């Protein structure tokens, strides 16, 4: 069953948040400690009137970022080592050399299945105290993670007119085994989670006491009856062979 059939109302999380509308993105979250998530990538694409369309991402290797396939745009710039998007003096800004969406992702469909993409950077990132890579899950057969976190610079509410932050925000989430969740996704139902503009950011879970990028922010659906939201993340473990084909171990 496609993701667009699960609930009566669908909200995708594309990179259409305009960073020029910032005010104070995670729904129900709080500001992260500066540079406590050095693997976070801010994907910026300039559009009309000098505004930016944004997505999140995560640094897997010095020259590869993982994000959502629906974040694919031309002329995207990856920012690394950023906390406050208005303070970029020490931020590494690297252009994307090649975008590699999963071959089974359908750009003309609303199902959002196989919503994962790798971005090869034009130059290698310089790793330091505020720019680091993150590990991937060990295997597909491991137990589904439960306690995780998600972070981003997206909107802080479901309403498209909600404010977006300058600073990276984060929240804790609890992953659930739900029959509403597609088999290649990780999901949780509630009110705290990623907002519009957080697409492509990592769902970070503990794997043998090490933080790993277990999921990629993909989509959300809101129930009209309860206003609860189903937050959906592409399950990275399903795509390990494909990722390793391009990035290596």
From TrEMBL:
Keywords: Disulfide bond, Hydrolase, Protease, Serine protease, Signal, Zymogen
InterPro entries: Peptidase_S1_PA, Peptidase_S1_PA_chymotrypsin, Peptidase_S1A, Trypsin_dom, TRYPSIN_HIS, TRYPSIN_SER
GO molecular function: serine-type endopeptidase activity
Cellular component, GO annotation: extracellular region
Enzymatic class: hydrolase
EC number of the protein: 3.4.21.4
Primary location recorded for the protein, binned into one broad class: secreted
SMART domains on file: Tryp_SPc
Keyword Disulfide bond listed: yes
PROSITE patterns (UniProt xref): TRYPSIN_DOM (PS50240), TRYPSIN_HIS (PS00134), TRYPSIN_SER (PS00135)
Domain spans labelled Peptidase S1: 26-248
Annotated signal peptide: 1-19
Pfam family, one: Trypsin
Entry's Gene Ontology BP terms: proteolysis
Cell compartments where the protein resides: Secreted, Extracellular space
Reaction(s) the record says it catalyses: Preferential cleavage: Arg-|-Xaa, Lys-|-Xaa
UniProt protein name: trypsin
